[in-house]
Design brief:
The chain is an alpha+beta fold and 158 residues long. The protein is 31% helix and 27% strand.
Length: 158
Amino acid sequence: MFIRPVTARDHAKIPQLVEAAFARHDEGLLVEELRRHGDIEVEYVATDRNELVGHIAFSRLISPPLCLALAPLSVHPDRQKTGIGSTLIRIASEAVEEAGWAAAFVLGNPAYYGRFGYDVEMAQGFDTPYPSEFTAARVFDETAFRSLPRELVYPAAF
């Protein structure tokens, strides 16, 4: 398995992978819309013998500034529970931190994302259109994070 940044030649294959991972069409459309509007800031794929087996995207939030949304994280159904998702989260989160983002938010299983530093309590106090008990944040810059506006506004594709 090899993890690398997304290239233009991956774009057509990613929605199919995402749809297979979620067993529905909406998440594949989400990626296409985020890309079409230029909202994706950090994006990686996992490959095995030149076949896409995993994908992760971080998109710029409208508010707060300097923050991203991790969505979606996708692993092909035949390859789930093999560490691909964990590896994608670790590598992509390192890239997010190195790029100077203040924080990233994710909507998902708190126990799963908590293993990677995403904490529901850190996201408390932010107004969100999604269930707060499943919204977690990973802080990369404590100083910037403390002064952020407290409303999560996602790109229109969401």
